[in-house]
Design brief:
The chain has 220 residues and is an alpha/beta fold. The protein is built from eight helices and nine strands. A five-stranded parallel sheet has the order 2-1-6-5-7. The protein has a two-stranded antiparallel sheet with strand order 3-4. A hairpin with a 2-residue loop joins strand 8 and strand 9. The structure holds S-adenosylmethionine (SAM). The site of S-adenosylmethionine has 20 residues, from strand 5.
Amino acid sequence: MQLDVFTLVPHAFAWLTEQRPLAAVLGTELDLRLFNYRDTTPLRAGQVDDEPYGGGAGMVLRVDVVAAALETVYGGQPDQRVIAMTPAGRPLGQEVVEELAGERRLTVLSARFEGFDERVVAHLASDAISIGPYVLSNGDLPAMVLVDAIGRLLPGALGSEDSGLHESFSEELERGVEYPHYTRPADFRGWTVPDVLVSGDHARIAQWRRDQSRLRSVGR
Ligand SMILES: C[S@@+](CC[C@H](N)C(=O)[O-])C[C@H]1O[C@@H](n2cnc3c(N)ncnc32)[C@H](O)[C@@H]1O
């Protein structure tokens, strides 16, 4: 997958790209390209934002700046999905992540300040996505959340092919949350591990895990 992120702080993504599992697929399954709106802004002195029409606090990321960035990279409007990260967007969930992980190419637009000029969302983006009902200071953390969630679904990202299959919100767990995990010691301060997990009975363990997942998912 080629995943292009447009941002004002490309270096913020350095940490993410050093971490597994993303690091494991970079350069193979994932080509992550970072573009800075300031590098292609048609305005002077690297200007990218402006005051809101109608007044009010904060600055707004200009539509001509975002259009110029897309024009420079794609020679026009990209023919792939263009996702604007915004609190007003479609809530991000695992099903959305799976849908996007199936794309060959994707573009992600991050904003700062008060957000995008609405014409970015209306005319330049095909999708708008929110990572949750709260406001962060910029779209870079939301973009990283999206990139990480997609990246770990790409082939080879996770060490074992099936470790992603039984995670929270997967189809295999009926979109519920995962069952609990335990490791050594089996007894710590009298807090013991459920007997079934040390029974060696794989069928019982699988059933216990399904039951636990269902129990924890009730009412969510
Ligand atoms: C300070 S926020 C703007 C918030 C906007 N004024 C509002 O009230 O909805 C700046 C940028 O951060 C990003 N952002 C913040 N919270 C987000 C969220 N929950 N989901 C996706 N993007 C978010 C968006 O790109 C947004 O334009």
